[in-house]
Amino acid sequence: MILKKQLENFGRYCVFMTRVFSLPDKWGVTLRRMISEIYKLGIDSIPLVVVISVFIGAVIAIQMQLNIESPIIPAYAVGLATRDIVLLEFSSSILCLILAGKVGSNIASEIGTMRVTEQIDALEIMGVNSANFLVWPKVMGFMLFIPVLGVLSMFTSIIGGVCVAVFTDIITLSRFTYGLQAFFNEWYVWYALIKCVVFSVIISSVASFCGYYVKGGALEVGRASTNAVVSSSILILLFDVILTKLLLQ
Amino acid sequence: MIEVKNISKSFDGKQILHDVSCTFYSGKTNLIIGQSGSGKTVLMKSIVGLVRPENGEILFDGRDLMKMDTLQVRHLREEIGMLFQGSALFDSETVLGNVMFPLVMFSKMTRAEMLDRAMFCLERVNLKGAESKYPSELSGGMQKRVAIARAIALNPKYLFCDEPNSGLDPRTSILIDELLSDITHEYGITTIINTHDMNSVLGIGENIIFLNKGHREWVGDMTQIYRSDNQALTDFVFATDLFRRVREYLNSRH
Predict the structure, then answer these.
(1) Which residues of B touch A117 (CB under 8 A)?
(2) Which of A:22-51 have CB within 8 Å of B?
(3) Could you report the per-residue pLDDT of A121-170, keeping only the tens digit for each?
(4) B77 and A125 in contact by Cβ < 8 A?
């Protein structure tokens, strides 16, 4: 029964996405809306990304020092491990899980409220493809801006680790920075950015889907918002495994 | 003119519309009335294509909505204006932005022409000066008037109004009714109003369709309604003591 419902939802999602990715009625209007969405979903998320990344970067550095303190492991390994954790997992998967909460709930509640207040019906009556008009700018805007958030997160996380080296005595700055540069694999950055882009599409499209098909009132909008965060988080974790297998092995 | 022929609709096995047929005339205020749950909203949503009936025909000046493909439906909708029960104004847009929206999406006007047209529509609904306000800053009556201005911006051939007076005080309700009636006559629009408001029924009802339990029970105009002997209709329209007395008074004069 649950499987049947999930398959039905997947089918509806596919139909919904074909409507979203049809050609916009007016490119000028759509591009203006996309810029506005970049500001709302992307630029507005910068403070959250910076704060979380700095602190998580610092925590990773401290924990690495505590866990790999051994005479046979070189001290610079702290910097190396911090860098690799940030690149491989934090600045893509964990960052997107956090953004699924902020951006996903924002999108689902906005579109859900438009549904229950008949604004989407008003668009349809006017002859506007509402799915395309509302969702295309969000998906494309967020997808275009997420690499910026990803790179910013990588950079500020490393800054967090550097702060640990500078302001505490658990590792010297020179050893930490040596570790940051040691055995660097450029592909890890591309891997993280590819994951970010895929996850951004999941977050924005799943949240839009949850909001678009809301029926009822405020209670259902809240429920759709929760569903959007839960569903996109599960899908991010699932695709994390798939992409890691495909891109790193 | 819109002709509805033998449409039926059910939800989850419950029949909402039973073989309903009716005609809505151009240049007239056509009213759909009936108790809550009688199928008024389903009938209106079927006509505008938000709900698909199981059978029947819906003819917009001879063009059958049921036989149109998606593109044809979208083109038809450019000829339709709709006023929703809750106004359905776009929260993120100003009053001017809301009225200009259909022009931006569907007209080939220049920016200056769009502005002129939007200002004309706002002036028509007596809302000049409110163009920079957001919907949340307006009263219910003002929101309805903005929604009317938006609905008429593209000079629609068909105007649908879903309970335009809900949540308004009697005086504002009368103003909205007069505005809808004036616009209908001025531009020769086929206006369909779904209402519970007996003041509207008796004030502007030129073609009234009474639905009862999903059936089309009665058709007539506001003068015929006083003399009707249809029990379900009179029980519904003259439910209050005031309206019963008005009816008795008017009938006693004839």
Answers:
(1) 86, 88
(2) 25-26, 29
(3) 999 888 889 999 999 999 999 999 999 999 999 999 999 999 999 998 88
(4) yes
Partners of residue B42 in chain A, C-beta under 8 Å: none
Which residues lie closer than 8 Å to B228 by C-beta, 6 or more apart?
B218, B220, B234
| Number of Cβ pairs < 8 A linking chain A and chain B | 48
Query: What share of chain A in percent tops pLDDT 90?
Result: 83
> Across the interface, which of B88, B104, B160 has its CB nearest the CB of A29?
B104
Q: How far apart are CA B3 and CA B57, in angstroms?
A: 8
pLDDT digits (tens, 9 = 90+) for A107-117: 999 999 999 99
Q: Where are the alpha helices (DSSP H) in B55-169?
A: 70-77, 95-106, 111-124, 140-152
A22 interaction partners in chain B (CB closer than 8 Å): none
Going from N- to C-terminal start, the domains of chain A cover 26-248
Q: Which of B74, B78, B84 sits opposite A118 (nearest CB)?
A: B84
Q: Which fold has domain B1-79+158-169+188-254?
A: Rossmann fold (3.40.50)
- Taking the C-alpha atoms of residue A6 and residue A234, their distance in angstroms, rounded to an integer, is 13
Cβ contact B74–A118 (<8 Å):
no
For residues B19 and B57, is the Cβ–Cβ distance under 8 A?
no
Q: Does the ipTM exceed 0.90? A: no
Cα–Cα distance for residue pair B56/B140, rounded to 1 Å: 37
User: Quick one: closest CA in B to A128, which residue?
Assistant: B74
Interface contact A127-B89, CB threshold 8 A? no
Would you tell me how many other CB atoms lie within 10 Å of the CB of residue B6?
Answer: 13
List the single residue in B85, B90, B106 with the smallest CB-CB distance to A127.
Answer: B106
- Which stretches in chain B have pLDDT values below 70? 254
- HSE on the CB side for A21, CA within 13 Å? 9
CA Rg, chain B, in Å?
Answer: 19
CB contact under 8 A, B105 and A26: yes
Tens-digit pLDDT profile for residues A152-164: 999 999 999 999 9
In angstroms, the Cα distances linking B200 to A57, B37, B140 are: 67, 19, 18
pLDDT at A194: 96
Q: Which of A213, A114, A25, A33 is nearest to B78 (CA)?
A: A25
Token pair, residue B126, equals: 């007596």
Give the residue extent of every domain in chain B: 1-79+158-169+188-254
Residue A117 near chain B (CB below 8 Å)? yes
